[in-house]
Amino acid sequence: MGCISIAIISIIASFYMPYNGEETSATIESAKQLKISASEIGTGWEGEFGYISDPVKTFEEACEYLETMKDELKKNITDEEVFQENLEKDKARFLELRDRLREYDAKDGYFLFLQKLDKPPKSLVEADVFVFNNTNGARKFFDYTKNKLNGSSISGIGDEAAISKIETTHIWLVRTSNACIKVIVWDGKETGRLIAERIMDKAEK
User: Fold this and answer.
1) What digits encode the pLDDT tens for the residues 103-147?
2) Residue 80 and which of 23, 31, 140, 166 are 20 to 30 A apart at CA?
3) DSSP string covering 55-101, please?
4) Nearest to 125 by CA among 62, 169, 59
């Protein structure tokens, strides 16, 4: 997500082993069950958590917010044409995600934004977690996201997992039972795996 996307979702809300048909994880009742705090990552981290009780509605409202607040958002923007182009891309991304979450029967979710403050430059991490009403929905969402990110399968974490790299950004995607976890890391590849593992630890408790 771009900077505008992160800011909007933060306001509105205030991820392998190739699948072999065997499930090793218990069903997750709510994304709240998978909530972690910044202190569980390590020292020097601070975070902002946003629970999403209705993922479909959240992304609809995010699009509405972008449209109604675009004049405010573009203050101090010198290239209005580029701003409008990025705005339309964000809206299209939100609407596509809304449609997939509806199609795959998402139950709830959360966003967690993390910063490590004890060294320059600041490490930035975004964790997106969605819980679905059944494992099949989570599996379909995992496949959709993996293909969208052109992810490569990895082993040793979750029921299935993948990693993608876009320039200097690493994205970890993990499915555990009926939940999908996506961790975007702007500084430090292995940090993404650590955070995904911390979240999955909650599913086992």
Assistant:
1) 999 999 999 999 888 766 667 899 999 999 999 999 999 999 999
2) 166
3) HHHHHHHHHHHHHHTHHHHTTT-S-HHHHHHHHHHHHHHHHHHHHHH
4) 169
Per-residue pLDDT band for 72 (boundaries 50, 70, 90) equals: confident
Report, as an integer, the average pLDDT of 30-44.
92
Which two tokens mark 107?
């139950």
173 and 146 in contact (C-beta within 8 Å)? Answer: yes
- The token pair that represents 198 in the structure block: 């911390």
Please state, in angstroms and as integers, the Cα–Cα distance from residue 22 to each residue in 17, 146, 173, 177, 201, following that order. Answer: 11, 19, 18, 10, 19
Cα 13-16-21 angle, rounded to 5 deg: 100
Give the tokens for residue 9: 């979702």
